[in-house]
Known about the structure:
- Chain A has about 150 residues and is α+β, with helices and mostly antiparallel strands.
- Helix content of chain A is about 35%, strand content about 20%.
- Chain A is globular and about 50 Å long.
- At the A-B interface, strand 6 of A face strand 6 of B.
- The first copy, chain A, binds a DNA duplex (30 and 30 nucleotides) through helix 4.
Amino acid sequence: MVNPEQLIDRLRSRGWRLSAQRRVVAEALQGDHVHMSAEEIYSLARERLEEISQATVYNTLRELVSMGEVRVLLADDGVKRYDPNVAVAHHHLLCVHCQTFKDVHPSGDDGVELPDAERFGFILTGMDIVFKGICPECQLVLGVQDHQ
Amino acid sequence: MVNPEQLIDRLRSRGWRLSAQRRVVAEALQGDHVHMSAEEIYSLARERLEEISQATVYNTLRELVSMGEVRVLLADDGVKRYDPNVAVAHHHLLCVHCQTFKDVHPSGDDGVELPDAERFGFILTGMDIVFKGICPECQLVLGVQDHQ
DNA sequence: TGACGACTTAGAACGATTCTAAAGCTAGAA
DNA sequence: TTCTAGCTTTAGAATCGTTCTAAGTCGTCA
């Protein structure tokens, strides 16, 4: 598990000016949540600092992403989710119904390679694996069963 | 290479009513293009059928997706691209600069597995692998070089 | 104290997509 | 052939997440 202070500590040590607004956004991110949307982060931040504006949440998130401290995930609904867990390599499991992401560490992922003939002259910078499925809560809602 | 008539043939044999508008959308999809956005498909369709409306393009694409004949890809810009090549299993290579997708067939992808302990009770329905990189055209634009 | 730069804010603007309500087509019945 | 019911198309409005704008606030350093 990630040290809950990690993100804020990293930001401080990078000399990032830590206003009250930025702090509540960072705190919301590093809590033990699934990866949240900007909207969810906004409402969580608001519980702690009522005056914070949506624009500040968006500004802060955009800045954290461009600093490389937070990663953006796009669910199938097109809405961005924010993943603060950049320090540890991992992939994702997405519920196709409720669009929730979970971090996962698949086996065999280091064996995946793109043959030269399929690189089309690209400079490769990364690879993401997304498993898709239906989470337990949505299985109940949908009335589906896991036959395995 | 996919038979260029495949998509339209499949649709016809499924009893899908093939209007002029739907035909030009399907033809645009199955041409030898990279995976296009709705906007790009609209302008291509328009070259062949000037009166076609944007709404029809969106309606048709949505229907093709829900029929399972076309797959949606979300680039990092949040804009949907449409992949008509559902018949053959494949993964994707995305240019992080121009957001173009190419189909690829990595090696070792069948060795990737999610351990039981990491499934969190999900019913798994699929796995997508997306390689990211910079395409040759964008390398020129950006002035970066491939050192390998 | 003043001034500058960084940060925040409300609200407008934006862009992709979906919705709405009306009009147009088409296949098959009469 | 004509009629009709249902599917399809249309323009434009609406939606929603996100970004932009321009003004206001704050903190820091001289």
